[in-house]
Amino acid sequence: MSERETAGREEILNLLRERGVWFELTEHRAVYHMGELCEAEFPYPEGSAKNLFVRDDKRRNFYLITVKGEKRVDLKAFRRVKGTRPLSFCSESELMSLLGLTAGSVSPFGVLNDQGRRVEVFLDREFFDDPGMIGVHPNDNTATVWMRTEDLAAVIEGHGNKVEMVSV
């Protein structure tokens, strides 16, 4: 992808194919929040991910926190552990300008649209445990891409964004 292209669903899938990354695609109706996942059948339910796009109070640092779907994230505790300034959720305009995404379709693949490489990605350490699978939207909330977590991290790092494993 060039610097000016936006990575949408087809661009994400093509990128994975070009890099020889194994993945499975599950089509489903639009999912806007974790509660709606119960209505769909997934091949790797233990890999279902929830994504939080947050920023510090100065709007200088942006973070995408991806955790197992059933987990709750305490942003105050995360802040203390990571040594950040106070955190809050990003606005829809920040989501669109940085990741090229709309509310309800937040995904780690969105960082491929982060041309300034401003977003730091935190992946829940448990996604790396056996079987090491993660399921995330391909920048479109009507499908889920299932893949090895280490491959997802490599794709993001290959774009130039920092990825860190965290215990949440």
Summarize the structure in words.
The chain is α/β, with parallel strands linked by helices. The protein is 22% helix and 26% strand. The protein has four helices and eight strands, in the order αβββαβαβββαβ. It has helices spanning 9-18, 75-82, 92-99, 149-159, and strands at 23-27, 49-56, 62-68, 87-89, 119-124, 133-136, 143-148, 163-166. The strands form two sheets. It has a five-stranded mixed β-sheet. Strands 1-7-6 form a three-stranded antiparallel β-sheet.
Mean pLDDT across residues: 91
**Rough outline:** globular
Structural class: alpha/beta
Task: Give me the side-by-side strand order of the main sheet.
Answer: 4-2-3-5-8
Strand content: 25-35%
Radius of gyration: 15 Å
Largest sheet: 5 strands, mixed
What's the SSE pattern? HEEEHEHEEEHE
Total strand segments: 8
Number of helices: 4
Distance between the termini: 33 Å
Helix content: 10-25%
- Unreliable residue runs: none
